[in-house]
Amino acid sequence: MNKKYIEELENLVKRILTPMQDMPFNVIIRSISGHSVLPFKKDNALLKFLEESFCEIGEAINKNGIKSNRPNEVGNKIEPIVKKYLDKNGLKAVTPQNRLGKKVSTGYPDIIFSYKNTYYYLECKTYNQANVNTTQRSFYFSPSDNFKITKNAPHLMISFRIYKIKSKYYTDYWKLFSLEKLKVDLKHEFNQNNREMYGSSSQIDIIMQKNVEKN
């Protein structure tokens, strides 16, 4: 390859990798899934059910605490508790299905629930008060063939503020958000799979390798 061509490729890569900021979440979801992020219409009866559910969830969390080695994993452990108490209050919370009708536990969003024949997507998060004004990543999602948005619906997020006592996490506050007006940033990532790194398709040079005696 000649020098000019290489320079053109390098400049192209630089332009591609420039982060895109303040992109409307509702537009991104629509472009990926073909479904709209609907405005959350306040319904007093629904709000009462949600308030009761989230208060009960907080009490359930604090009864025994949540043991976790990493604070960012606490949200994953809260998800089944959220489902349990939404169900208890008649909101029929389940894991969302992908386009093929298969329930997928990983990825955005965590839960879909229904009330008066209207569906709502719900993401479960936790946060630490000390990090509220930092740039630490707190919300993310990725396009996928298994994307779980298959309905026009409001997108909500329940976030529990957590604190740690010894080896367990507890909560003292929660917030429910509507994500319709959320703005997101796009940061590109290069990656590779196991087959290309370690398996039959690998083309990278192995400098050295050796077995280690097992215990």
UniProtKB/TrEMBL annotation:
Protein name in UniProt: Restriction endonuclease
Source species: Candidatus Berkelbacteria bacterium RIFCSPHIGHO2_12_FULL_36_9
